[in-house]
Amino acid sequence: MMQKKDCRLTYQGDAVLAGLLAKAGSVYTVAEIRSLIAGVLGSAEERDPEAWCVLVAADPSPALVAQLLALRDDIAHDEAPEPIDAGTYARRLAAVRAGCARLGIDGFLVPRADEFQNEYVPAANERLQWLTGFKGSAGNAIVLADRAAIFVDGRYTVQVRAEVDGALYEYRHLITEPPEEWLATALKPGQRFGYDAWLLTPAQVEKLKTGVARAGAELVAVASNPVDAAWERRPAAPLGPVRSHALEFSGKSSADKRREIGEALAAEKRDATVLTMADSLAWLLNIRGADAPHTPLALGLAILDKEGQVDLFIDRRKLVPGVEAHLGNSVAVRPMAEFGPALDALTGKTVQVDPATTAAWVFDRLEQAGATMVRAADPCKLPKALKNPVELEGSRRAHRRDAGAMVHFLAWLSAEAPKGGLTEIAVSDQLEAFRAAGDRFRDLSFPSISAAGPNAALPHYRAAAATERPLEPGTLYLIDSGAQYLDGTTDITRTVAIGEPTAEMKDRYTRVLKGHIGLAMARFPKGTTGGALDVLARLPLWQAGVNFDHGTGHGVGSYLGVHEGPQRIAQFADTQALMPGMIISNEPGYYKEGHYGIRIENLIVVTELDLPGAEREMRGFETITFCPIDRTPIELSLMTADEIAWLDAYHAKTREVVMPQIEDPATRAWLEAATTPLGA
């Protein structure tokens, strides 16, 4: 293993490049990096967390980043951590059952979660995928001695049947038949059902307890996870680099944030709060990491007291030179192993803990310590969602640059698709290359959903060598993608007609577009929740007797998570008002199983409105995503005059934003045509 330069690129055993470590100094060439990575891929040490390649300096060139990301995606698409054969999942299920027997339990819950309640979990925490083969972003499995079931929501009902063996697992709907309901009839009186208290929140434990009790069984927190015990060659915990996030991007110092949160705790007569969400740590401390896929998170835990002092529990090896100086004397860096004893030391203190985002293990430990717990939202959650002017302007800049990459991509697609031969992976790789060439680009913000024809009917489809389809005439191609830039996070979906769409496709596409426009044009009084606006996006589809099974909008971070709370737009009840400064997606869709899928997504910012004659404080949306919306599938007869005017104005603004970034004459001509007013 080479050690000739003091800078590192972490390489995880699951064959995905985890992130860049840096130092000031010279940079290896692409050829050297490829050689070094190739050496690691063939190395007997590839599972060793200390087997790191020494590779690259602090700010690699866009070309170098593009090469690394392309290589990473090639590995992710084409290689698996270990061979998977027809009997692999049966053997794994049997091993977990044997582990349950050794622990004296009759069953066990396997959620897709880690101890930090992240959406995108490190490879070491992909327990659900390892056990069942399911690759979706949400779900649970239940293992009993004689039965097993997997629970997914409406986004994954088709995908789960393709990825999980129905002879091993019963398919269940996570919402209409949740795990606690299934357990109420599946368990027998007197049985003991186990769970890992690090992987569930108290609310989730209470739901389980209700179902288990109805069966006359007992719910038990296990001392060790039977999946971990059965998982041979489990990837190592991530050791991605942690860097400071500059004030020019964050807009507010960590000291000011800590002081404000501390003062809020003191005003509520609370001594401290426990923070376990990695994006809260990133926001509060103005740091960014590389422990989670596509999200710049540093996995750790923290205790913040009312004086604004922080104990940060994290592996110190992750901190690049200068980070501890950035954190300052008010932040004590401590080993993860000291977190439990630190909770014990809160005896007699009043501690705020978020029951929606904090592991049940923390609550159990605080209760044992004799602390007084106040169950309340993570105090960083709302301030993080309310972007300050610097963050908002950064997001606008990032979206403008992203728009240039998208237009280059769509123009390329328009020229190449008619020739034939394009496939899902090659197309998304091309988009990634366009993005990687841009300023301040760091990574994708999530694995691109590149879906042609029937694959687009799976809302969270991920292309793989075994499943990808060609882009064929007469079909729709859906690309849902985004990027992480130092100054903002993007997320955009476009659906493109390859050739001539059918009349039904045009009808559904236009209804999705109408819903998108209806939400973008919304005006609403202060205090309105996203749930109250959701119908605006769905009404045109409902009028045709169709719907979609995912939320309409999710919050988005500032060089952080592409999915961020507490704001959202969805059908279910919601108590969080939409407030100025929040960034949220606008993404209605339609999916016809086995045929095609449609989604149109922009990001929008909640703004204050000054309406003449208004009797209440009013709010609206500013669209910050700029990219042509395909005009080919629009059925103009379904559009109202106001909708046509909105789209024409949006395309005019897109042309204004993007044209100065385009030098290639063919791409400029494509953009001009793609943003021509409807009916022109």
Question: Given the structure, what is the number of helices?
Answer: 21
CATH architectural group of the largest domain: Alpha-Beta Complex
Question: What is the strand tally?
Answer: 30
Task: Give the tally of structural domains.
Answer: 4
| Stretches with pLDDT under 50, minimum 5 residues | 1-81
Q: What about the largest sheet?
A: 6 strands, mixed
At the third CATH level, what is the topology name of the largest domain? Creatine Amidinohydrolase
Return the structural class: alpha+beta
Q: How many whole angstroms does the radius of gyration measure?
A: 25 Å
**Terminal Cα span:** 63 Å
Write out the strand line-up for the largest beta sheet, numbering strands in chain order: 6-5-4-3-7-8
- The level 1 CATH classification of the largest domain is Alpha Beta
Helix coverage percent: 25-40%
Whole-number average pLDDT? Answer: 88
Anisotropy-based shape: globular
**β content, as a range?**
15-25%
**CATH level-4 homologous superfamily of the largest domain:** Creatinase/methionine aminopeptidase superfamily
